[in-house]
Amino acid sequence: MSTDNKYMQLALEHAELGRGNVSPNPLVGCVIVKDDKVIATGYHKEFGGPHAEVDAISKVDGDLKGCTVYVTLEPCTHHGKTPPCADLLIEKKPDRVVIAMEDPNPIVKGNGISALQGNGIETSVGILVEEAMVLNRVFITNMIEKRPFVTAKFATTLDGFIAQRDHESKWISCEDSRIDVHKFRSEIDAIMVGSGTVRQDNPMLDVRLAKGRNPKRVVLASHLQLPLSSHLLKDENANENTIIYCTNEAQNIKLVDQLRSEGLNVKSISKNSKGKVDVSLALRDLLKEYHIGHIMLEGGAKLFSEFYELDFIDEIITYQSPKILGSGISPFEYIRPLHLSDDSRFRLAKTDVIDTDIKAVWARK
Fold this sequence. Notes:
By secondary structure, the chain is of the alpha/beta class. The chain is 30% helix and 22% strand.
């Protein structure tokens, strides 16, 4: 491994430490090296807090002459919640700055690199760029697609079903898998379900089996067919964490007013050609208005199918148990029939054995 790769890998590992706390900002790590020794490290710890470069530079006395700075994302050049990192680097005068990837944010893209080079700082770009892009796949999707990154998660039997025909689905996966899901929930911004899942399962969608913050709970309920006693509408997190999207049809107005009077967040938006909530509008609204950068779909099959057909699924996580049903509900039960000759949209990125289950992560090609 080259020297640049070694120190950039360390910067990527530090960036990962911010997961679950920085969204909708990117994960960024920084390593400062002098005479082939690490003299400071830093990372972006929380949204609104110091950026990785600021965190690392704060641990060094004086300027950075004779130093090389490794940073996983192009230094910013704009005033947001914090001052521009490129300006700080120019002020501190390192000999060299090594950057894993260009910032996909159009406000920054290329400007940070140009600013450093224009002030006589040697700049290298593209070191471990693929690894950096995987690390910040959520942020890249937010910037380029203008919507949240979407992970579809479900547990299946060995023969591929997520529930019995009567919708009974507790519990397909083992307890350790459920704990793993709750850990992942603590790292994302929101969980989304359809109204059918609320009616059938009355889920809580929290992180009670793990440490961490509870994500927002988003419900697509085109006609507001939701039990008013459900956890998502009545528990202690309802007013703060639940967001409901319905269509802006007249028959919804009275119930919308009732739910809002109880402190719930209900959004009425345009319907699609099938008379349901326009998913693309809901996704854009979640990113723009609520700063939700990463959503996990947790059911049901109609929701998975709709997102698949709209090509909005960026990642699939499955937990396959050794149980066999013989018949049941498929996760993509409602998509138009496909052929085995059709190209797959996903590639196997990672597998893990969790007690009796096999966890698989499928990434977009």
